[in-house]
Design goal:
Elements: H1 2-7, E1 11-12, E2 17-18, H2 19-23, H3 32-45, H4 60-72, H5 75-78, H6 83-150, H7 155-166, H8 173-185, H9 195-199, H10 202-211, E3 214-216, H11 222-232, E4 240-241, H12 252-258, E5 268-269, H13 270-287, E6 290-292
Antiparallel strand pairs: 1-2, 3-6, 4-5
């Protein structure tokens, strides 16, 4: 293992860099390219020697000092140390970079889920802006109906005139659709629109979740049980799946999207379950109800 640690300091001639430089690499912005680099870094760090047991007796303050020292040194500087000091510094840095890499993945996961919700909210605002014109048109139609009623024709004539106004071609489907659109999007519920912005990042979200090991900070396992269902159905294509998921951790708005009556077929909407679980995972990571092993 000591020889392996020393190999981290050897320059790779084609790229003229050492693996020690790679060890110190940290995450950048939340792009797919940087995510790929970060996940590769996590995978590579996990191949390095285990160091927790070797460093278990080192006081926290001392360990922090060792990490800070190792981070500012380059491979050439470390070669000037004794083997014992050099290896201790490298092991301390490996331990810290494993933690930081997982923290970076979690932070990228949280930011990406936040961006998905932001895009869904923006789409809702765009829909509502377009529907304001539709609302004005429907109000104008209602005013025309009131004008007809105010003319005090007999009931048959009034009904005929109203029908001619509302359905000149005998079809009220478009009018019904306009009313339904206004009803659906008149509130502040952006969740029905969230699948589209999520879907473009879905493979990356699953890669991030695969790279992390989640643990509940309390006895409440409902979210992690739902996460297990999501991961088991990752490669499914069907929109509805047969799993009966306990959704009591989620809001009523989420439950209406994820669940349906058993009499209508499979009870759980796979797509909305994914976004729901990942969104709650993000929230629980922020507040500390969910922890990441090795973070």
């Amino acid at each position: 293992q000591r020889q392996w640690l020393d190999k981290l300091l050897v320059t790779d001639l084609p790229v003229r860099r050492t693996l020690y430089n790679q060890l110190k690499r940290t995450a950048k912005k939340t792009s797919r390219q940087h995510l790929d680099l970060l996940l590769d870094q996590v995978k590579w760090l996990d191949t390095l020697p285990a160091c927790d047991d070797l460093l278990s007796t080192v006081p926290t303050t001392k360990l922090k000092h060792m990490v800070e020292r190792a981070a500012v040194l380059d491979a050439g500087d470390l070669k000037d140390f004794t083997a014992l000091e050099r290896h201790a510094l490298i092991l301390a840095l490996i331990r810290q970079m494993r933690v930081r890499a997982r923290d970076d993945v979690a932070e990228m996961f949280i930011r990406r889920i936040g961006a998905v919700h932001k895009r869904a909210r923006e789409e809702l605002q765009n829909l509502q802006a377009r529907q304001r014109e539709l609302s004005e048109a429907l109000v104008a139609t209602l005013e025309d109906v009131l004008d007809i009623v105010a003319e005090e024709h007999d009931c048959a004539t009034t009904g005929q005139m109203v029908r001619q106004l509302l359905a000149p071609n005998g079809d009220v489907d478009q009018l019904r659709a306009d009313c339904e659109a206004i009803r659906v999007w008149s509130g502040n519920n952006h969740l029905p629109l969230i699948w589209k912005p999520f879907s473009s990042w879905r493979p990356a979200m699953f890669r991030m979740v695969h790279a992390l090991q989640f643990e509940a900070a309390t006895q409440d396992k409902r979210l992690l049980n739902a996460l297990a269902v999501v991961m088991a159905n990752e490669n499914k294509k069907a929109e509805w799946v047969e799993d009966d998921v306990d959704m009591s951790f989620a809001s009523e708005r989420w439950r209406k999207l994820v669940r349906r009556s058993h009499g209508l077929g499979n009870p759980t909407n796979r797509r909305f379950l994914e976004v729901c679980v990942f969104s709650h995972l993000c929230s629980d990571l922020r507040c500390g109800d969910i922890c990441i092993e090795g973070s």
